[in-house]
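Worked example 2:
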Amino acid sequence: MPAPIRLRELIRTIRTARTQAEEREMIQKECAAIRSSFREEDNTYRCRNVAKLLYMHMLGYPAHFGQLECLKLIASQKFTDKRIGYLGAMLLLDERQDVHLLMTNCIKNDLNHSTQYVQGLALCTLGCMGSSEMCRDLAGEVEKLLKTSNSYLRKKAALCAVHVIRKVPELMEMFLPATKNLLNEKNHGVLHTSVVLLTEMCERSPDMLAHFRKNEKLVPQLVRILKNLIMSGYSPEHDVSGISDPFLQVRILRLLRILGRNDDDSSEAMNDILAQVATNTETSKNVGNAILYETVLTIMDIKSESGLRVLAINILGRFLLNNDKNIRYVALTSLLKTVQTDHNAVQRHRSTIVDCLKDLDVSIKRRAMELSFALVNGNNVRGMMKELLYFLDSCEPEFKADCASGIFLAAEKYAPSKRWHIDTIMRVLTTAGSYVRDDAVPNLIQLITNSVEMHAYTVQRLYKAILGDYSQQPLVQVASWCIGEYGDLLVSGQCEEEEPIQVTEDEVLDILESVLISNMSASVTRGYALTAIMKLSTRFTCTVNRIKKVVSIYGSSIDVELQQRAVEYNALFKKYDHMRPALLERMPVMEKVTTNGPTEIVQTNGETETAVLETKPPHSGLQPGSQANDLLDLLGGNDITPVIPTAPTSKPASAGGELLDLLGDLNLTGSPVSAPAPQISQPPFLPDSSQPLFNDIAAGIPSITAYNKNGLKIDFSFERSNTNPSVTVITIQASNSTELDMTDFVFQAAVPKTFQLQLLSPSSSVIPAFNSGTITQVIKVLNPQKQQLRMRIKLTYNHKGSAMQDLAEVNNFPPQSWQ
């Protein structure tokens, strides 16, 4: 067989390929030749073939068939073979493949080899891809080499020890004695890898961290090494851009950060050296900036002196003036993390931070925006808002929503006056109205309503803001609402804050009618405008007939919402005109609330959620044909959230069809919950969930078996409420006596309409086989009339690959549970 081509010739040949297909053909041809050589056990060219295979692997082609050949090269006595073999093992093998375990004995022999370079190859391979089993077997050899006097081997053994600790943390103590003398080494390679090893040990074990702080006195040793580095003169073998071994300095600073965190003594010992590094490091090159950045992070993370923290923030301030975008971004990110703890020190760089809002880089611009909002306080709110509003005018669309939201929050928190607050919000709505949050309109309306002395000024400003421009829908909505409420102030010209404008009633109506017919107006905006026109019928005197005409026109609008409003307003004019002034009188001062009604914190299955409390009216007689209209869609889809209604509600019959089949002619209501349970409003009969609701299982209330069929058994046990004797809690326990698990189990229930029911989330959806476990679920029932309890249940689950479903009625509740 002819000698295979050399690696250099293969690379040259592959590079001549003009297409991907041509390259693929060359690779396949060479792989076939390599396979033939492997089959013939050709020891002469095995090293050359594996080298070519590794090059193909680097190009992304499969090379797994060369794994065993790598092991054969490792077992060879020639160094060149071992070098390619170990390189192939590191590239082609990992711990997910059992083949790598065959290397263990070879690595162990090579770790005890007489040649340091062979030992180095074995250490590199073990530190790169050694599995936990290999690490356990070879940790002793690594620890032995860590104590050797050969610096070449010690630095490789230290990195290998890091890998061993990551794979088998319990072996950490084995390396503890060897670490004592590592930092006394003068070789920078050994020092660097030693610091990496110590950092790994401190990060992974709090006990090791405490040991190095107290017993080993590690901080003074690191301070000594760092001081020698920054004070030493020029050393050509370690110099990088005029700085002595910046890589070692960065590693030491990171280890000092870990040692000084939450420790007063260690922090005190390193304060002076950190100040020296911060003041003596050259900043003209990127190398110096990297060291300064690590120094700043260390100062901020330990319990450093206040003066040192100010020095660190000033370094970040200098970073903001750097031409390198990466350094500016790093500085902004770091200042954002420290602004809460060192607010005043960061404030000194406010002008530089605000200048970063004009940067062309979007990442820097976003960080500057976030930091600017963090710097806003009561003293600088006017100036900062001016800059941020200017930024809002000119920024890209993706920034406008976040910027508008931040301005709203800052203005609400730090507004020096109500007029300033209103002006600021109106400026945002004028500039970026389409990007504001959904709650911006009601929040501004509430602010305007509560600022009684500002009503005339506000309505005049809003009127002028929307003249001929309806593009900003939130602004038009607020303006329409205010004109409807305070239109009489606008016409009367009572504004004292600025020069009043002369507006007639017809001009005001012209604006609102323009909003109604504008193509830019959304349906919600038209609703605001129509309601405002209706309100003006009680504020204006000369244009009531015109208002009637406009309202009547929209009684036949294709927009159902608008049509409904118009029809109702027409009815006010025709049938209830005597009530119109009272119904449309000015809104009272609003109280800001987070929901539409009283709230209570509901604890459901360990999760806290807020539910609106609603009361249930007395039951009234209903016709049998409307039975489905009185039912919540208890057993329908999960997209419906059942609540206790405040008035008889109307549901489509199709939504309750399945429920009628289940419940027959019973008049029922309840809230079954599937797993996972939908959010359910807390019924009013339940007290605050932070207090104990129920006694222990009451003596004398026996448990019952509600269902027992096809291996599925449902038991009910009972408790009574501490705070309300009309409330009963039923705990269901579902067990499975078959040989296979029941999955996707859902329990649903309904009770007669004289009761109220709530199901909490089940403990699981899988019932284990052979009665080896149970599912529990809690039902809470209010029985104010002390009637006999009846319940209809529906069970669904998967068993033996089939979907199962069954219905049952439970009528054998013990009298003690409901009397």
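Confidence is low (pLDDT under 50) at residues 594-698. The longest strand covers residues 727-736.
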